[in-house]
Design brief:
binds manganese (II) ion, Aminopeptidase i, Domain 2, nine-stranded mixed sheet, 466 residues, seven-stranded antiparallel sheet, Aminopeptidase, alpha/beta
């Protein structure tokens, strides 16, 4: 090969480098330590409520205090505020006044799964089942024959909150959605994947033993209710004010002979929400700008509702910090910047037809920025101004963050959105940032440790931005 233009190539061409070619020994050590913390978080927090609890526990250990109205705040103070136990905002007050804006990272802590219907329990053919209504975008056929755990709360009418978590301990029972045996699937196998298993097929098997010597109907169902009453003090009507969630019972595991990846439920968006949280808790002293970590709910169903990113709960949190400094919320937002941290698709060589290799995130190429997301001609996207992209690019390059730029798939292949638009609509400069994921929204998703670690590193650099 001619070496005549080698220097020119080096100087002019952009190359999307594998992070392992450039990562330092120090970074590799920190990456492994971070991966351990992340795996522990994945196992401790499979629902948004559990993620909030775990965030509060870790935040308190790092010196964060719950924010109360009228609380006097000075630079360096660390506070948090939860929303309905399903979302949380944390902040470290900066040296600069809030009129000079904040540095926000926003990620979501809800993920696709099977929620129980309000009146879920029924008996058919002497087996008891829970009816489910899936949450978020799922390929329904993937959720059959997967061992599942039940997580959530039942709130009794007197306000008592009963927490339920069954299926996670080694000796716990699990639950399962059955699928048709291949021997009798001739008709099912001819259906498209989208309709081979339907939403109403996603019934979870939960019991099969009738009450002894019972002549009445629905004896297996009654036996399940009797068990639940003895165990948790609940009656069937209590299901109507409950949030019960079926999630894969599997623990997060290292993946590959080289242990370079992690297979787990919920990388979307734990890989980014934990990065945002962990980086915030690791901030030393007082940052220049107030650093805000926003872990939101309901992203998978449109970010609507009280705990979603469209909720004014975010304004309520920031406005009160501003009021303490005599700054208006609008002034603060107008000078704020945000990394909207959500996963993107990793290029999958088994399905190369859906992504443009040069414009897609790749495993081990680092944190992936997306100038815009959306689908059908960028529709529904927050397109970050080039000036802001350039700034984040500089921050990463100056601080040893391995990064890449990607779109979510080919132009007409589909697409997706994040909370970025809701931040940008508040007049906050916002850039999509995240970890590339394989098998996104499947019961078990795959990420690389390097990409997770670099996302966390980007968050820290951003919070510490001057
Ligand atoms: Mn997401
Ligand atoms: Mn998602």
């Amino acid at each position: 090969m001619s070496e005549k233009y080698e220097d020119l190539r080096k100087e002019l061409l952009y190359r999307n480098e594998n992070g392992y070619n450039v990562i330092s020994g120090e970074d590799r050590t920190e990456m492994e330590a971070y991966a351990k913390r992340y795996i522990a978080f994945l196992n401790a927090a499979k629902t948004e409520r559990e993620a909030v609890k775990e965030a509060v526990r870790q935040a308190q250990a790092a010196g964060f205090k719950p924010y109360t109205t009228g609380m006097a705040l000075k630079p360096g103070d660390r506070i948090y505020q939860t929303v309905c136990g399903k979302a949380i905002n944390l902040a470290v007050i900066g040296k600069k006044p809030l009129s000079e804006g904040t540095r926000i990272s926003a990620a979501h802590i809800d993920n696709p799964r099977l929620d129980l219907k309000p009146n879920p329990l029924y008996e058919e053919d002497q087996m008891a089942f829970f009816q489910t209504h899936y949450y978020g975008g799922i390929k329904k056929y993937q959720w059959t024959t997967v061992p599942m755990a039940i997580h959530g709360v039942v709130v009794k009418q007197d306000g008592t909150v009963v927490e339920i978590c069954v299926g996670e301990k080694d000796d716990d029972p699990v639950f399962i959605v059955t699928d048709l045996l291949i021997h009798l699937s001739e008709a099912q196998m001819k259906k498209p994947l989208a309709t081979g298993v339907t939403g109403e097929n996603l019934n979870v098997l939960v019991g099969s033993v009738p009450l002894p010597e019972d002549e009445g109907g629905d004896s297996v169902k009654l036996a399940v209710l009797k068990f639940l009453h003895e165990q948790y003090g609940i009656r069937e009507e209590d299901f109507l004010s409950a949030e019960l969630i079926m999630v894969p019972a599997a623990k997060a595991r290292e993946l590959g002979f080289d242990r370079s990846m992690i297979a787990a439920f919920g990388h979307d968006d734990r890989s980014c929400s934990f990065a945002a949280l962990d980086a915030m808790l690791a901030l030393e002293g007082t940052p220049e700008h107030t650093a805000v970590c926003c872990l939101t709910d309901k992203e998978e169903i449109g970010s609507m509702g009280i705990s979603g990113m469209q909720s004014e709960a975010f304004e309520y949190f920031i406005e009160r910090l501003c009021a303490a400094q005599g700054v208006t919320l609008r002034e603060c937002f107008a000078h704020s910047e945000c990394l909207s941290a959500d996963v993107t698709n990793a290029h999958d060589p088994t399905y190369p037809e859906v992504s443009d290799k040069a414009n897609n995130g790749h495993i081990n190429c680092g944190v992936c920025f997306a100038k815009y997301t959306g689908s059908r001609g960028k529709s529904g996207s927050s397109d970050a101004p080039a000036e802001f992209v350039a700034k984040i690019r500089r921050l990463c390059n100056e601080n040893g963050v391995v990064w890449q730029m990607g779109e979510l798939g080919k132009v007409d292949a589909g697409g997706g959105g994040t909370v970025a638009q809701f931040m940008a609509n508040r007049n906050i400069l916002t850039l999509d940032t995240g970890v590339p994921v394989l098998s996104m929204h499947a019961p078990i998703e795959v990420v690389s440790k390097l990409d997770c670690y670099m996302t966390r590193k980007a968050m820290k650099v951003f919070y510490e931005d001057r």
